Structures are given as C-alpha cells and as structure tokens.
Amino acid sequence: MGDLYALDFDGVLCDSCGESYATAAKAAKVIWPTLFNDVDSSLEDWVVDQIRIVRAVLQNRYDNLLLVRLLLEMRLPSIRKSSVAEGLTVEGIVENWSGLKNLILKEWGEDKDALVKLYFQVRNEWKLQDLKTWIGANRLYPGVADALKSATSVIYIVTGKQSPFAEVILQEFAKDTISPERIFGVSSCSHKIEILKQLQEKAEHQGLKLHFVEDRLATLKEAITEPELDGWNLYLSGWGYNTQKEKDEAATIPRIEILQLSDFNTKLK
Ligand SMILES: [Mg+2]
Q: Where are the domains of the chain?
C-alpha cells in the first residue's frame, strides 16, 4: 500500500523566519532609522533564532515588526523606549505576547494600522522588485530537499502561504520535486481541512495511507473534530513553529504523533 502525505509548508518544509526578520528589518529601518545603528550580524542571527521560538504565538505577520524592535530593545539599552524590555526573556514573550504587543505599541506611540500597512507594503515591494533575494531569505529545513527528491510517496502541500510563493521557494531549493498542481494555498484552517477531504475523495488516492504533517497544533485539533478525516494519521512537526506547551499538550492526544525532523525525512524517502 502506498502513502499520501499532505504537508504544511512553513514550519514543516520551509523555515521562513529569516525572511520574516529581513522584512521586519527593512520596514523598521523606514520608520525607526537609527534602531539598527549598533546591530551587527551576530545580533541579527540571535534575533532570527528568537523569532523562531516566538513565531508560534504571533497572530499576524506584521507582529514580526514589533517583535524585532522589542528584541533589539532587550539587548541594546541605548535604544530602549518600552518599560518592559529590561529583564524580559523570550519565554516571557511567548507567555504574554498579546499583552506585550498592546503595551509596546502604546509606549512607542505608534499607530497599529500604519505599521501593518508599512510591513505589507515593504514585503510586497521586495517580492515584486527582487524575488530572488526574497526567496533566498527562506530555507528548507536540513535534509528536506533530499527527502523530497527521493520520495516515493504521493506528496501534496497545503499551506497558508500563497501557492506561487511556496512554488518558487521549492523550485529554488528542491527543484522539480513537487508539481504546482499539488500545491494548495489556503486562506484558513477550515479551508485546509476542506482540501484534506478533497484529497481523500480522489479516485487515484483510494487505498493510499493518509498522513498530514503540520506545525500548528490548533489545525491538528480541528482535523480531529472532523469524523470524515478519521482515516488520516496526524503529525505535529517537532521542529516547526510550536511552543513547548503545545508539544506537551500534543503528547497527551492519542491521535497525534510528534515527529522529529530526521524521522520525517526518513518517512518521506
Ligand atoms: Mg505551518
């Protein structure tokens, strides 16, 4: 019996935190030009590592803009304007992102809508004007490209990203492994669930063992509530964007298996 894998993209195949940082930094330099005066590449690497940890609790891509400034304020007392940056830890941010977000916006005297607009404007312009460097700010997780190249299973991608962008990233890092018609860009969690239903209905998929790999626990829990999806094996990507708390919760849910990256790569091959 063959296998069918439906894979989320960000946090399963692709680590996009480098791109999140770079977009946020570009936008931050527009509104807060002096913020980066004392930022060197090792501090930048540190910021990207912290984004990877906090990413699971961010509510919108634009949150990266706030997060980058807050992280820099934590490390650089000279630029500190918010009352919370001193002594704050990344665990503290994960615990209370919503509260912190509102507070820093107020203390920085910034207008949320204007920042949202700026963030997406910068991101869209970057993609339009220089797609190659935008793609290059992303990466596939170690071993994933080889696993995709040698995979014998039927693989689909079901992602919250717009499908053309998932497509160009895959083309760059794992050329010709997944054809565009097997990449579904979805607008919501329920839309993702709908795609899984459609995949299992297809005549050519009858008899295949079904697997869904996702880094967002809420999406897997949503899948569990759908009796139609009872035939799917559900996996949480242990290397993706989820918190320790979510991993601990997933460990108590019998339907969900927590995968490690090396096991995932082996499974695909
Ligand atoms: Mg994801």
A: 3-15+140-268, 17-135
**Res 123 pLDDT > 90:** yes
Using the mean position of ligand 1's atoms as its centre, give its distance from the Cα of residue 244 in Å.
16
Query: pLDDT tens across 35-70, in order?
Result: 999 999 999 999 999 999 999 999 999 999 999 999
Instruction: State in Å: Cα 237 to ligand 1 middle.
Output: 9
Measure 78 CA to ligand 1 centroid, in angstroms: 35
Q: How far apart are the first and last CA of the chain?
A: 15
Measured in Å, residue 215 CA sits from the centre of ligand 1 at 5
Confidence label for 135 from pLDDT (cuts 50, 70 and 90)? very high
What does the pLDDT average to over 230-252? 97
* Dist. CA 191 → ligand 1 center (Å): 14
Q: Which residue has the tokens 């990344």?
A: 90
Question: Which amino acid type is present at position 205?
Answer: H
Element (H, E) at 43: helix 41-54
SS3 30: helix
CA separation for the pair 61, 120 (Å, rounded)? 9
* CA 85–ligand 1 middle distance (angstroms): 28
* CA 70 to centroid of ligand 1, rounded, Å: 24
Could you tell me the distance, in angstroms and rounded to a whole number, from the CA of residue 8 to the centre of ligand 1? 5
The DSSP secondary-structure symbol of 215 reads S
Q: Homologous superfamily of 3-15+140-268 in CATH?
A: HAD superfamily/HAD-like (3.40.50.1000)
